[in-house]
Prior knowledge:
heterodimer; A: 2 domains; six-stranded antiparallel sheet; three-stranded antiparallel sheet; 11 strands; 29% strand; elongated; B: mainly alpha; Cytochrome Bc1 Complex, Chain C; 70% helix; iron (chain B)
Amino acid sequence: MNMFWKVGVLATKIPARKRLQAGLKEVGENVSRKVSRRQFLTYTLGGTAGFLASGMLFPMVRYAIDPLLKKGEGGQFHDVGLSVDEITETPKQVQFTVHRKDGWYNPPKGEQMTAWVLKLNGEYIAFSPICKHLGCTVNWNSNPQFKNEFFCPCHFGRYKKDGTNVPGTPPSKPLDRYETKVQDGKLLIGPLVKK
Amino acid sequence: MLRAIYDWVDERLDITPLWRDVADHEVPEHVNPAHHFSAFIYCFGGLTFFVVVIQILSGMFLAMNYVPDIENAHRSVQYLQNEVAMGVIVRGMHHWGASVAIVMLFLHTLRVFFTGAYKHPREFNWVIGMLIFFVMLGLGFTGYLLPWDNKAYFATKVGVEIAGSVPVLGPYIATFLQGGDIVGAQTLARFYALHVFFLPAALLGLLGAHFILIRRQGISGPL
């Protein structure tokens, strides 16, 4: 067992910087890499203590970071009670309710969500009203100064009808869209399109 | 690497004397289990402290998901136990640790009693130890209510009734504990505040005093 930590290493194999630190001058001089009893005890006791401490801390840390590792709930489509015939080129506000569990809390009436729905080049689009600047709520045509635009009152963020942000205003990205699909002539709104 | 960081800090802040003063002290032969195995009875105080550290840590993590409100307390406990990863382990540590802490504390008290370590000049540390004992019981009593299930509710009702049976002062103590006329919303909020702020603060202060006195007076001699 003793030979295990009594391995001598030829000084030629040691880089020059290390050799200087060890006070070796002559090439070929031996340096002992013996692990002392104190070092051995320090490592084994430290390792054991570290193992025990990590066994204690691991469940608590895993518990704390669980929200990071949980997968979000899958997308469901909601009937917003809107026939596709009613959708025009002018954005129209629709409201729908999403039932989502918030930890231990289940809002009894669900969560009110809003979407701006319009028809663009024969395609049905549902914009999220959340401003891409800092998350306030945008409105269609709500500021007389900026006609036919989505307008955010917080920092005067503006978007064109197709959701693209007006350059020179705070938002740096176009409005997010909800997934949409048409079923029996009715519009269904799904989860936000992931980017 | 670690050594270099330590040296860098130590050169500037001279931290070595700080931990050396805490860590470097004589352990007499008669309390060292390496010399006499029966000396393990001297470990119970340290074990109590170790369990208290676990209680504080696991309690901090539990508080991330617990709400002291009668509508949500039980639901939040159910959620953190069944739906958060390892929640059952973290809550288990706090649940079983609470009992283990009291057991260790009691064994430590027995050791001090039967080795006569409470005698002159250590009377004052015995008194502090008794105060720690009552604070720990208080932590157990207040923590028991927090899951807000039937067991918690009726245990607290009984506990408050017992406190209320004290002559003259009883009704005042009961009202103080309940924070009102019944065991309810106000009791839960009050017990939570006691459990996570007041009693732990008192406990840490008393533990500090306990340890300072041990270092001042040294460990009592052999039987």
